[in-house]
Each structure stands twice: as structure tokens, then as C-alpha cells.
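Bug #77: duplicate submission created two jobs. Keeping one. Sequence:
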Amino acid sequence: MLGDKVRGAFRATNRPLSTRQQAPPQPPFQKTAIDVIWTGFRIDADAVTPFLPDGLVLSPTSIGILGIYTAPSGSGIAPYRRGVVGVSAQGVPGSDIGEGMFVMGDIVDMPGCEVMRDLYSDSVVEGTALTWPEADLLHGVASVDGVEWLRATIRPSRQVRRDLTGVDTFLGHTRAGLIKYADSTLADLDDAEVISLEITDDAPDYMQALRPLEYVFGLHAPRVNSIWSEPRVVGPGASKNAASVFLSLIDDTGRAAAIVREDGTLLEANTRALALLKLDGSGVGERLLSNVPAERQALARALRMSVGRTGPRLSDPVLMQLPGGGYVLAYVLPLEHGAHARDSALVLLADMHGPERRDAAQLLQLFGLTAAEARLAALVGTGIPPKAAAGELGISEHTARSTLKTVYDKLEIKKQSELGHLVARLQYS
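Kept job's structure:
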């Protein structure tokens, strides 16, 4: 097993595990990473396979990954510096993970190292990492005890695509066995030319097995906001369809989501969505409807446009009054997974008074807003009128509208619907 090999490597380097001084933080963890180097390359599958956990197999593409970055802020384990190598792998038979990146080697500084080793991968080694620019290049190294194990140099294109979102599956091995976790990201990203990649002779053999044979891609991220979910042990008998796996990944990130047919029929929902909608059992076959005709029409229009791919990637927020009382906000976007991708849409749900709004307010400050501006923007961005938002914040409507003008100028937007799209991306990325 990989865990035995890694623990043997620890003993061989005489690196004792440090004693924890206090209770560790618990996921989900949020971080902001800067100057990220992320590269893909082809590997020697025969060299890598002996280091995989039992039952895990390489994906047909056999793509290796090497990344180096600094995470200066966040909640939980940040700040930290990291160098990581991994490989695209398939799940064990009967598991629900599909394909993901299996983390083969991880270099992280303290105190994040200890938490990550316990929760995400027992291949984590205490060390440090650094990226720095030089002319039109970006260099990165990851070291252990002052000795470099990983080196990379890329040439970013500087044609940055902003606010790209995604949810990726990562796999690791801990004392509990093979685990999976979701990494939900909001990133500024540009392509990069890979100049050089090196896994040095000082790196352990399970890292050296991933030495590049051919470069496939290079990416540079000036800034990435990322949320790591709680890890879940992968076990037999957990087989699900593609839609269930996708909803489970979204559940891991703390978001409520459902798959809804164009006519409003609920086909599937994750546990958070069932709780938010106050549905017993699976909720399959029930209609996702509001008691208010205008709200039903707005949801029906968003579903129709999303299924037909005729509207925006993410709909404006739809306020819904639930049959049993209470309100939720619904965001509709095209479904790209599973058998119902052609006749259904993915609906992300949010409690108007839930933690998502507070999270959005925190993240909006990363765009240069003050705390007061971010609180107002988060409220208005979820569909609440400026007058009502002013009342909730205890300010005058005049102050709210004046502040919104400043918010729009700072964010370089012109109307509330654009703010709604940004807030939705921050909440669900």
C-alpha cells in the first residue's frame, strides 16, 4: 500500500512527526492562492502503478500533475506554501469517485502540513515552496530541509481569463483508507508555456516515478479562491450514477443542489437541498414550485432557457416561496452530467438568511470592497431590493443607493443582474 511506502520513506529520512499542540481545524477549508504554477505531463504508467493504493488504476490518459503555489490567506489551514505532484486515476470497482487526481506527493509547511497529512494524504511531507517572477518567466521550487525536490519554470501568456469556476475531485490515502474530496474554485487563469519541470534525485522514489516524459499543458493562476470539502472514505457498495456523483461532490462543498426537469419535476437532490426544501425521502417526482405565480413563471423561464442553452450560463436568482413556508433562492444553469443532461438543468439553492450570504460578503472584499460595501453588495446580489437591504443593515435607502454606485464602479459593472451573477459565482464556486 502507498501508506506503508510513504511511512517507510519518513523513517528512512529520520523525519519524526511533530506533536500536535491543539485541536486541529476542521474542513471545509477556504484559501486564496497566488502565482500558481500548474502543469500537466505524460508519465511512465508502469513506473507509477506500483505506488498506487490497491484497486486504484491510472486513467487512460495517464496525465501527471505538478503544482507549486503560495496560499497567503484563508480559513482553516492557510497560510501555507505547497508543492504537489499527482496523477489522473480511476476509482476502485463499486466506488462513487469516477476519475480524479490522486495525490502522490505533497510538500507543505507547518502547521498546515500536519492537518493535511491527517485529513487528505499521508504522503504529505513538511517542507516549503516558493514561486517568483523573472522577466517574462515564473519560477517555482518546493524543498524539504533546504533540499529542492520539485522545480518548475513556465512562461505565462498574460491573457488572463477571469472568474473561471469549477469543481475538481482529488483522491488521497490516509489511515482511514482511500479518500476523496472536492476542490471548488474561482480563479483568474491564463495558459502558459512549460519551459522546464524537474522532480530531482533527492525526491523520494514515489515522486520520482512521476518524472515527465512529455509536456501536455501549463497553466498560470495569478489568484485562486478555493474551498476544500471534508474528505470522504471511498468504500464498496457506494456505486451511483453520474448525476448522483456530481450532486455528492457539490454536497461536499457545502452547497444545496438539485437536478430538475424542464417542467419543474425534481429528479434528484443532494442532502443539503432536501433539507433546505424540507422534503422527506428522496423528493423524486415532486415539483419544484412556488406558491406565487410570478415566481413559478420565473423558474419555468430559467429552466426552459437553461435546457435549451439559450440563456446565460447562470440564471439571475429566482426567489421562491416554498409550499411549506419560507423562501429560497434558486440559480439555474445547464446540466453537463448524467442521463438527463438534455432535458434537465442543475439548480443551486440558497437560504436567503443562510451562511452563503456571509461567505459572499467576505469574498467580495477580495475585489477591493470595504466590509460595509461587501455586506450591502452580498444582500443586493441575492435579489433583495436596495430599500429592503438598507433596512436589514440599519442604513438609509439613500446611503444604500450611494454605496451601490461605489460598488458598481469598483467592480466595473452597471446593474444589479451583473452583481447577482458575481455573487452567485462566489457562493457556488
